[in-house]
Amino acid sequence: MSESPPWSPASLAAQALGFTDPATRAVVRPLHLATTFIRDPDNTYPAGYIYGRPDNATVRDTEALLATLEEAPAGALLFGSGMAAATACFLALDRGDHVVASAVMYWALRRWLQTEGRRFGLEVDFVETDDPAKLRAAVVPGRTKLVWVETPSNPLWTVTDIAEAARIAHAAGARLAVDSTCASPVHTRPLTLGADIVMHSATKILNGHSDVIAGVLAGREADGYWERLAAIRSGNGSILGPFEAYLLQRGLKTLFVRQTAQAAGAAELAHALSRHPDVARVLYPGLTQHPGHDVAARQMENGFGYMLSVQVRGGEAAAIATAARVRLWKRATSLGSTESLIEHRASVEGPGSPCPPDLLRLSTGVETPADLLHDLDVALRAAHA
Ligand SMILES: *Cc1c(COP(=O)(O)O)cnc(C)c1O
Fold first, then answer.
1. How does pLDDT run across 279-310, given as a tens digit for each residue?
2. Is 281 a catalytic site residue?
3. Which end of the chain is least crowded, N or C, by CB within 10 Å?
4. Which domains does the chain have, with CATH numbers?
5. CB 177 within 8 A of CB 196
6. 106 is catalytic
7. Are 285 and 363 in contact (CB under 8 A)?
8. Which of 109, 204, 239 to mutate to test the pocket of ligand 1 (most atoms within 8 A of CB)?
């Protein structure tokens, strides 16, 4: 009998690592709901499950799949949301520690760092991490403990060179964490490029169906910091429920087909919209004129993501009027789902945001790209009539 080849990540995801139910031979594992487990006569818990915060087999199965997809030697930890996963990385630091974070990043996390993070005693500097010289100038050897990078980053899709950021962070004695929500393991595996921690809002493309809020961390080294992240999750109770983990695992089975189709659709939209008379500028790392294109071409595969933004001619009023006129696109926040979403970001982010007022953020779903383009074209023309 010949040996199996190393199955591709897409094949492993399609079968959720081949999990089956030993009792019934079912091809899908049951959903485990128990909150407590029997102690053996010898006073031990031989299965390793003691109490549902945080011991749950459905959660652990989903974590095993995520760790495989991220090539994470330390494993993966699921959290109750992306924000719970991200904030754990900062709560695991010490008072007075210095943090350098991307200036362009998920707005709610930036706000958390500016408010709760500072109250917790962290010193946070926001810099354009897509410029290695600025990142190098911002880290303070010995004092900077964490560099936080989002790439491609919301909502301008700036691209940070992960390998270079890892070299800069490590030379200063800091860890590098990457919010890879918009790339996902389909496009980029930050740990293989030198990052120490990768974080996702699993609410987005990983689940992909707008019906689960979840977050995940995957780690390169099972060191003291990683243990602290697990302890914070358990101690703060920021765990994911088993049903959400089950749905997430189900969503992950189609991650590769969804994301490659969504990225292909986004690329088609980006090229077509760059030629649209009512569009001033398209922001998408797959376009050669995008400032992050060369780095993206090096560190992303299978496409350049499902997210793009357009700057509408006529400014903020024309952008809002366009978002109000679409019919197939859904006018809603969030991203990565099967249904395409459109949003005027400046209305959400408020003062202090680097988001231009004429910007519409587009999350490409799995609808036919020609339909999405037609819907946007009609809305843009009506808004400019
Ligand atoms: C949505 C999002 C988050 C926050 O995740 P939640 O699951 O909503 O808590 C963090 N980073 C990025 C890039 C996101 O898009």
1. 999 999 999 999 999 999 999 999 999 999 99
2. no
3. N
4. 9-252 (3.40.640.10), 256-383 (3.90.1150.10)
5. yes
6. yes
7. no
8. 204
